[in-house]
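Fig. S4 source data, part A: sequence.
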Amino acid sequence: MALDKEYFDAIHIDVVKKKYYNANKVEAVFADIRQQAAELLEENARLRQELSAVNARKEDLGDAAVSAQAIYQRILQSANARAAAILRDARQESEQLRQTAEDQREFALRRVEECLSRVRELQKEAIESVNAEWQRFLIDLYPEEGGPSGDAVPADLRDKVGAIAQELRAINDPEDIP
């Protein structure tokens, strides 16, 4: 039975008309009250221990939460720093690759221009050589008539061979057209 208002209202100590109490009944009520008070003290002590344990766990959880928050912040800062470093490195590498590609492109362009220039020179030399060969061939066709100058070669034939050489020069380099 719990010590509450109902318990105390239920206590009826018979008061005899002579104004004395029944000692056994009073003693029984006091014994019951002492027993329940002792139980309440034990329960109160147990609840205090539980409350203390809960408060300790609460403090531990609070400390753990603060520690976890600090760890989270450190991890986040570390991750952000690492991401910034990776991004910086990637940008530097990208710039280096871009510069290397640009350098290679310029080198290749110079080499192509050099090769094209050399090919044009070789073509000019080949055209002049072919023209000279044709002119010698024409002179050899008419050796008795014109002598070494080749005056005996018909003018229109000499002009046609010259025109062919000029067209070949024009194909090689349109700027060389006289």
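Fig. S4 source data, part B ends here. Confidence is low (pLDDT under 50) at residues 14-18.
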